Amino acid sequence: AVVSTQSTGHTADMSLDTRKFITFAEKHRIVLNQILRQSTTPLSDGPFQVLVNHTRVLDFDVKRRYFRQELDKIEETNRREDIAIRVKREHVFEESFRELHRRSPEELKSRLYVIFEGEEGQDAGGLLREWYQIIAREIFNPHYALFTTTPGDKVTYVCNSFSHYNPNHLDYFKFVGRVIAKAIYDNKHLDCYFSRSFYKHILGQPVSFRDMEAEDYAFYKSMMFLLENDLEECGLDNFEFTMEIEEFGVTETRDLKPNGSNIGVTNANKREYVKLLSQMKMTGSIRSQIKAFLDGFYDIIPRHLISIFSDTELELLISGLPTIDIDDLKANTEYHKYQFSSLQIQWFWRALRSFSQAERANFLQFVTGTSKVPLQGFSSLEGMNGVQKFQIHRDDRSTDRLPSAHTCFNQLDLPVYETYDKLRKMLLLSINECPEGFGLA
């Protein structure tokens, strides 16, 4: 996979002046983003255009504004007639697929308007919004077998490795990719949430071992066991760099690296094994599905443009910023080795209230794996084993550690910080940087 421009780039490829500027930009990030918010000049044309290739220092709203400016440029060169979508309400997915599957990528960038057969009314935008809502539901209809929920939270989705039971599944995946990209293109939000690894596939970023925690917790725990224990002492020194993959109903053994079947896993190379095994597990059995989806998505939005976002930002771009009721979350929180009256807990809630809407969304993503707020409120928050309230655990290790999270259990491990300012700073660092466990990204 190709790492996107989210990273600050390979420093060796940058001129000395550029390197100095990026270092300066990272140090003065808050002020820089304020300047860019107030600027009337598009980012790609102004004095800060070097940041187009180093978007890590940009806040989400600044990136989104640049992204929309670039889409507007595409729109200006693509003036075409509107496209009508005629569908029956009871067959929206199949009939929309037939209407749009035959269209070229350039045609799909035209304005869509929807006609529900047998109904009066012109589409002034409301019917299109309703069409997107119905499609977003139907994408996950078990009848089509395209997606399945992740075991970790039961609300985010991954490609179904058994989707081949639907003979049209790859054409449907391409269609879904087009629909989701078209919704972004049209600035419409969809009520659909995917796993971290799925967003990373769209962005062209490599998936990481940490992404496995929400997708397959048992696998994640077994990999943690390998990393934390001596393989020889545990009698686990008799396997190779291979993995069994079931694709389209056929099981085969694949090498995780060239000549992997002849390379034994040892204490020295087990980190590489865990990294490669995790990547294969999250992509190996669904490669064709992912490719079909991405072919459709990139028909509408170029890969280089979408890749300016992080995986958490992409979720907000597709689904919108949630409204997070802090009082409701607070009323449905459990404490372990902390009390409600503990100083750090009081500081925690004060910090969370001080966060912007985007920062609150990042926090929810950090601790639950998704920015989706349960319809019935936080009393209905789902975990790996059903309803699982948000919980804060006391972390008695060093207060130089960042807070950490376990999304399967909606759990925040909070060190016993000495001051409010330190707690707020460390919490923000955690949710914005999203550090990957064991550096295996």
Would you summarize the structure shown here?
With 441 residues, this protein is α/β, with parallel strands linked by helices.
Descriptive terms for the model:
disordered N terminus, two-stranded parallel ribbon, disordered C terminus
Give the arrangement of secondary structure elements.
Blueprint (H helix, E strand, L loop, with lengths): L15 H12 L1 H10 L21 H17 L6 E5 L4 H10 L3 H4 L3 E5 L9 H13 L8 E3 L7 E3 L9 H17 L10 H8 L8 H4 L1 H12 L13 E6 L2 E6 L14 H14 L3 H14 L2 H4 L4 H9 L6 H6 L1 E4 L6 H12 L2 H12 L13 E2 L2 E2 L2 E6 L8 E3 L4 E5 L4 H14 L8
**Low-pLDDT segments:** 1-12, 435-441
The strands making up the biggest β-sheet line up spatially as 7-10-12-11
Q: What structural class is derived from the secondary structure elements? A: alpha/beta
Report the sheet with the most strands, covering strand number, pairing sense and barrel closure.
Answer: 4 strands, mixed
What global shape is seen?
Answer: globular
Multimer state: single chain
Number of helices: 18
Q: In what range is the share of β-strand residues?
A: 5-15%
Walkthrough of the structure:
With 441 residues, the protein is of the alpha/beta class. It has helices spanning 16-27, 29-38, 60-76, 92-101, 105-108, 126-138, 169-185, 196-203, 212-215, 217-228, 270-283, 287-300, 303-306, 311-319, 326-331, 343-354, 357-368, 420-433; strands at residues 83-87, 112-116, 147-149, 157-159, 242-247, 250-255, 333-336, 382-383, 386-387, 390-395, 404-406, 411-415. The strands form five sheets. It has a four-stranded mixed beta sheet. Strands 1-2 form a two-stranded parallel sheet. β8 (382-383) and β9 form a beta hairpin.
